[in-house]
Design a protein that fits this description.
This is Aminoglycoside N(6')-acetyltransferase type 1. This protein has helices at 12-29, 41-50, 104-118, 133-141; strands at residues 2-6, 55-61, 64-75, 86-95, 123-125. A five-stranded mixed β-sheet has the order 1-2-3-4-5. α1 packs across α2 (41-50). By secondary structure, it is α+β, with helices and mostly antiparallel strands. The longest helix has 18 residues, at 12-29.
């Protein structure tokens, strides 16, 4: 039985295991952008757990944390030519490597969408790395579409 609930401080060590998985994946595929997972990750996740403006959900199966998602709501109030409406921005979503393709990510995203709707958000946005084809396919299956591309050129 899968449970989606709000993450708590007592979940921190389990969240760090998943953070290490996604951190390793990103470092191995984009080492000029991402650092190796380290002890510096712990205070980062702790600060998000304590941030009341951040949605921090976790997926739990048989008392085992198997995934988590973070999101916030932003409203453009500074750029006059961009619409000003609440937008839910997913910061991180990760599912344990041993539990992928079991619907956990979909359940986390569904719970996020429900929360976003309750907050008056008009859309959900997220960024996914170009190397992460499986994540891109997952989001496309959920109805996400490309809206923009972030491009990078490394300087010597």
């Amino acid at each position: 039985m899968m449970t989606i609930r709000t993450a708590e401080i007592t979940d921190l060590n389990a969240l760090l295991v998943l953070s290490e998985q996604i951190g390793r994946l990103h470092f191995e595929n984009a080492p000029l952008t991402f650092k190796q997972p380290s002890a510096a990750d712990k205070p980062f996740w702790l600060s998000l757990l304590n941030d009341e403006s951040t949605l921090f959900l976790l997926a739990e199966s048989e008392n085992l944390v198997v995934g988590f998602l973070t999101a916030t709501i932003t409203i453009n109030d500074t750029i006059p030519f961009i619409v000003s409406c609440p937008i839910c921005r997913v910061g991180t979503i990760v599912v344990d490597e041993a539990h992928r393709a079991a619907g956990i990510g979909t359940q986390l995203m569904d719970a996020c969408a429900q929360w976003a709707t309750s907050q008056g958000a008009a859309q959900i946005r997220l960024e996914v790395m170009a190397f992460n084809q499986s994540a891109q396919q997952f989001y496309q299956q959920l109805g996400f579409q490309d809206q923009s591309h972030i491009m990078c050129r490394y300087l010597d």
